[in-house]
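hey so i finally got around to running the thing on that chain from the lab meeting. sorry it took forever, my laptop kept dying and i had to restart like 3 times. anyway pasting the input first so we r on the same page abt which one it is
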Amino acid sequence: MNNNRSAELLDVFCWGVDTLGQPLLTDLLQGYEEEAHRCGSVRLVQHLRQQNLIAARGRGAQAEFSLTARGRQRVRRNDPELHWQQAWDGAWRVVTFDLPETRHLDRKHLWQALRAHRFGFLQRSVWVWPHDVRRILREIIRVEGVPECFCVFKASRLFLCTDADLVSSAWDWKAIVLRQQEYLLQLPGLETACRTAREPTRLGALARMEKQAYEQATVWDPFLPQALWPTGYRGRRLRQSHLRWHTLLCDRLSRMTSR
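ok and heres what got predicted. didnt touch it at all, straight out
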């Protein structure tokens, strides 16, 4: 089962709706999919039930679904507020590795993995992160099959530059801010369309558009602790706009179901 599909269904519940009936859930997911015939909602729901991420009451068209405590915990993992509020101990973890140029493919996969975990890039074989990296590196080694070529330094003091200088150079904040602006410019049009939507499938389609735009706006954001935020960072405004969108979706859905 595709993890992205699972995340999409959990995202539907994140609109603030505690319970969804089977017919309505199917309609929403059909709109959420780019092609309705790819939905496979029954199989997806069964998969999430087996993982104890959602619970069901009733059967068939009378079934109702809700998030479990484990499902709510899975959803919260993606909340940037958890990362922003994470205490920083004032030390940088500097990750270095040694892979010869002849192993270009391994090097490429390793870079991709480090970027996927949002590490800061200082130079070709030097990356930084403000928190403990042992669990992440073990996971990268397990998944990518890269041998134990890492060396990690804990730097509690910087010379010739400040923490702000390091943050500024290790991440592409110009590109991050540009994507944040693109999302904020796109959202009013989606909100207008949401207010006039008449069918659950339309709400699902709009939700997919917003989700894709929000993911594009946050994909490169490392969600650094607040103490390390660069000047002009708009992450919190982005999150507030995203939450406002979910509130609007929930309101429109509630109006549809109360007819």
